[in-house]
């Protein structure tokens, strides 16, 4: 279990929260699943993954688990077919203007990295009963929220990472505000929100959130300064 998944699992356990139905959108390798601890606790879980190579690995890894549903598709703003770009561990919709690979790695899309995948609206697979949702689809996270039927207790969503900020951050924050969610904590890439009033966010957690937010802000400032210095050096 990776650090982010372990932290989510332990923090929810500390709040005595046990999800009844989970959805993870964007899984990558099965052992890197953000909800792995709960899957091993046999909580019903739906995995949505667009990359067929990872789908095979997910099905094989969880072959003895009866609580797993795997859907091979990319979640976006329409039903149909879409182009995805695979860059190392990052697979993203090629028409997005921003993703972690583009921003942090300065990656330029190459024809040989592109493949087609089925595209679906999240509403096509959401029956309204998910109470924990994890979303990590490299810049397209907003489209899960936009078409979501469920009102999860907890939402973990990739919003940042190094120099990257989710291109739909304002839409995401507006949705959280309008649907009565509060920010619980952040890690290196995800923001975890909870339904207001479900459980108490203590003073230590609030202080830690402020410190983590400042650390993330400083990292981005360093990136901006680095790019500025590089630009000035090239201009001379």
Major pleated sheet: 7 strands, mixed
- Report the principal-axis shape: globular
Structural class: alpha/beta
β-sheet strand percentage:
25-35%
* Mean pLDDT figure: 93
Number of helices: 7
Strand neighbour order, sheet with most strands: 3-2-1-8-9-13-12
Radius of gyration (CA) equals 18 Å
Question: What distance lies between the first and last C-alpha atoms, to the nearest angstrom?
Answer: 48 Å
Q: Given this structure, which CATH class of the largest domain is correct?
A: Alpha Beta
Name the CATH architecture of the largest domain: 3-Layer(aba) Sandwich
Number of domains: 2
CATH superfamily of the largest domain: Vaccinia Virus protein VP39
Order of helices and strands: HEHEHEEEEHEEHEEEHEEH
CATH topology of the largest domain: Rossmann fold
Number of strands: 13
What's the helical proportion of residues? 25-40%
How do you describe this structure in short?
By secondary structure, the protein is of the alpha/beta class. It is 34% helix and 25% strand.
Secondary-structure blueprint of this entry?
Elements (H helix, E strand, L loop, with lengths): L2 H12 L7 E4 L10 H5 L4 E5 L2 H10 L6 E5 L1 E2 L4 E8 L2 E4 L6 H5 L9 E7 L11 E4 L6 H5 L7 E5 L1 E2 L2 E2 L3 H10 L2 E6 L3 E6 L7 H33 L1
Parallel strand pairs: 1-2, 1-8, 2-3, 4-7, 8-9
Antiparallel strand pairs: 5-6, 5-7, 9-13, 10-11, 12-13
Describe the 3D structure.
The chain has 236 residues and is α/β, with parallel strands linked by helices. The protein folds into 2 domains: 3-201, Vaccinia Virus protein VP39 (Rossmann fold); 202-236. The protein is 34% helix and 25% strand. The chain is built from 7 helices and 13 strands. It has helices spanning 3-14, 36-40, 52-61, 100-104, 142-146, 169-178, 203-235; strands at 22-25, 45-49, 68-72, 74-75, 80-87, 90-93, 114-120, 132-135, 154-158, 160-161, 164-165, 181-186, 190-195. Strand 12 and strand 13 form a beta hairpin.
């Amino acid at each position: 279990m990776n650090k982010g998944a372990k932290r989510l699992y332990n923090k929810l356990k500390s709040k005595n929260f046990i999800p009844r139905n989970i959805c993870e959108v964007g899984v990558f390798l099965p052992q890197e699943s953000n909800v792995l601890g709960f899957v091993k606790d046999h909580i019903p879980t739906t995995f949505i993954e667009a990359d067929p190579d990872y789908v095979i690995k997910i099905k094989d890894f969880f072959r003895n688990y009866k609580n797993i549903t795997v859907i091979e598709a990319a979640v976006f703003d329409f039903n149909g077919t879409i182009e995805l770009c695979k860059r190392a561990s990052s697979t993203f919709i090629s028409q997005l203007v921003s993703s972690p690979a583009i921003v942090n790695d300065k990656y330029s899309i190459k024809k040989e990295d592109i493949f087609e995948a089925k595209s679906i609206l999240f509403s096509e697979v959401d029956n309204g009963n998910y109470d924990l949702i994890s979303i990590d689809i490299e810049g397209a996270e907003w489209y899960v929220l936009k078409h979501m039927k469920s009102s999860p207790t907890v939402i973990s969503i990739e919003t940042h990472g190094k120099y990257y900020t989710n291109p739909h951050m304002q839409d995401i924050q507006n949705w959280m505000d309008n649907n009565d969610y509060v920010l619980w904590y952040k890690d290196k890439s995800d923001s975890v929100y909870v339904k207001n009033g479900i459980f108490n966010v203590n003073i230590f957690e609030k202080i830690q959130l402020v410190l983590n937010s400042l650390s993330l802000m400083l990292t981005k400032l360093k990136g901006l300064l680095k790019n500025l210095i590089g630009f000035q050096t090239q201009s001379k």
